[in-house]
Every structure is written in structure tokens, then in C-alpha cells.
Amino acid sequence: MTTLPVNPEIIDFYTDTFDEATRLTGTADGVLEMVRTQELLRRHLPPAPCTVLDVGGGPGAHARWLSADGYRVHLVDPVAKHVVQAADAGCTAEVGDARGLAAGDGSYDVVLLLGPLYHLLDRADRDQALAEARRVTAAGGLVVAAAINRYASLFEHTATTWLDRASVRDAVTDILATGVHEPGRKGFTAAYFHTGSQLAEEMRAAGLRDVTVYGVEGPTWSLLKAAELHGGVSLVDSPMFRAALAAARAAEPYPDLLAASSHLLAVARV
Question: Could you tell me the pTM of the whole model?
Fold first, then answer.
């Protein structure tokens, strides 16, 4: 295992500022992300019980349901708070870094990177994380990586109405141009935003094959977010939620619609 420095801003953000444990349960668009991630993973995962390495698995949101489905899950995350929170998710867990995994070569059937690529701003670091995922996945196994969509902040801050604030508009403009939310900027921590084609290219450059990129929440998630935020009531399991979920499923065959999703999910084979 290689010990590599993690930007302290990212550790502080998830330790003291932001509660990742409620992100996928507290809002309708968060629940939409969870439901879609579950259905996409279940579509591709080999049958349980097989071994899953959940890299950057946070407090165990996905490890919990995967363990309940019968998978043998080990979680790795650089945030010590998340590893403690994952203790009741039905998995084993350790503090670690996607760029230097402790696991042996070919030791897992499935490797999930459902968070690390968000916060690796340099291409070399993302390449290293994907190379590590490939290394520890058995031949013929599955590597799945999530990314924040390059255009997500434009849709999000239209939904929140914050795009009329100059500081937010400047940050969104920079993300659209460079893909980078710079360290030290307010509103989020240091982050990288992918296009669909770029995510696919990075997966292939790591030696992964049969790469498919999905839009997780689909093209109408921001409408759901705006309606819930400004309506003041939860829209989970509402007709609008079900319509947004149907839209995400209907959009899958159309790559042009990837640009409208909040998150991307790339599925590939070793």
C-alpha cells in the first residue's frame, strides 16, 4: 500500500462541514441517485456472494445494501469519520486511499469507485486510482466508477436560484471551462467534474474494456430538485419523483442526454 497525501480541505469538509451519511436519503434528487445507482449496479453485478471492494465508500450507503444482498463487502475511505460510520453497514472497513490500495492483485470480483474520482483533480491521480482498481480486480471482473457530470453545477444552481449570485456564477463558469472546483472556493470542496466521453476515455486508458457510461439521475433531476426546494415538501415517492425516474431510464439509449445528468456511472471489465 502506498501512503499518499489527501488534501486536508477534503478531509475537513467531510468530517466537519458536510454530512455524507444523509446525502442519499435527505432529498428527492439524492434518493433518485441512490435508486438509480442500485438498479444500474444490480444489472451488472455478478451473483452474490462475491467479493466487492467499495473504494471511497464513505459511511457505507452502498455497502449496506450490497451486504444485505449477500455480497462480501470491504470498504476503504480516506475519511476516518466515514470508516467509523460504516461499522454498522454489514461490511469490514479501513482508512485508505484509492491511489494505493492494500488489497492484493486480483483479489476482488468487483471494485467500486463511487467517490474517489470526484476529488482527484489531477489526471495522474485519477489514472493511478483506476490502475489500482484494475490491479486488485480479478480477470473478467467488474470495475465501476462514478463521476460528477461537468454540467451538473449549472443545472443545480439554476434549481437553487443561486446562479444569479456573482460568486456562484463565476465558480460555475470556471467548472464548465476547466472541470475544476478550485480548492478554497466556497460552497463545496476541491472537486473534478467529468464529461461522459472523458470518463470513458480515462477508463479505457486504464486498460479496462467494454466501457459503458450511464447518466445516473437522468435529464430531469434538477426539475425535481427545484420543485422540492421551492415547494417546501418532500417529493420522494411522488408522481414527479416517479416521472424523473422514468425519464432517467428512458434517456439511457441516448448519449447526448448524458450531459444533463448530475452523476455519471461507468461500468467496465478487466
Answer: 0.96
